[in-house]
């Protein structure tokens, strides 16, 4: 769902651009803050993309999904976040109709890809823990790459139809605003496809994931009592999978915490955009901040990302065969 979508029944009222009645210093502070958050988002996700793409040890199914999420977050930092924050600061859309159309499609695309990728992460962890043998045989990096490409292609086609087909694209212009006008039926379908279905799947699967992880932990403690040497490799593998599930669970929980306020607010509060820090604008910013927070989560909890950062910042990635370095 677009972060600035309104129902077609809403009236597009004229919106002049009087500008903010604030001092120049406040403007500077707001723009510096907006630029800093955007830059942090771009740099953090670029480091994730470089790490997963460069080091062959990181070419795993779970990390490919993380790569997809980082690319969508990068789109938010490069394109969506600067334009939207500028609109909020100015209380007026000043970038023209072409950039408005571009913002709509990129905004829709990044949002739907992010939500569906997090749902795929939940599916991946559920399969890895519930059916480890089937997972190791059937779920390869190639399979996940195909699924990821399909996710991006599906989102692109779906969002193009939502925005520009079936009468949703109109010639109505709102001076000073960048609004996607969507009819009630399409808006309801979008709510189901981009929010209700994937979030319900995420919650259900991660509930099962943590139940399975707890059961595995109990089983491993039982095995340790017997101190079976032959099963030590399996215990290490199970422990690794449980740790991966827990860490990705943190990612999913933070994602839902950033996602839910916007969708709850969009259902009960109409969008105005007339006031600085309108309630719905605040929830949109929280949504955007998830793209900034994700790389921070990787840096705090993922040892492979910490090692990758060290190799990147010390320029060892430029060494011959650096892609084969051990980062696990």
UniProtKB/TrEMBL annotation:
Pfam families (UniProt xref): 7tm_1
One GO cellular component term: plasma membrane
Domain G-protein coupled receptors family 1 profile: 44-298
Transmembrane segments: 28-52, 64-85, 105-123, 143-165, 185-213, 244-264, 284-305
Domain of life where this protein originates: Eukaryota
Gene3D superfamilies: Rhodopsin 7-helix transmembrane proteins
GO molecular function, one term: trace-amine receptor activity
SUPFAM superfamilies (alphabetical): Family A G protein-coupled receptor-like
InterPro entries: GPCR_Rhodpsn, GPCR_Rhodpsn_7TM, TAAR
UniProt membrane topology term: Multi-pass membrane protein
Major place of residence: membrane
Cellular compartments annotated: Cell membrane
Keyword Transmembrane set for record: yes
Keyword Transmembrane helix: yes
UniProt KW keywords: Cell membrane, Disulfide bond, G-protein coupled receptor, Glycoprotein, Membrane, Receptor, Transducer, Transmembrane, Transmembrane helix
Annotated family: Belongs to the G-protein coupled receptor 1 family.
Protein name: G-protein coupled receptors family 1 profile domain-containing protein
Organism: Cyprinus carpio carpio
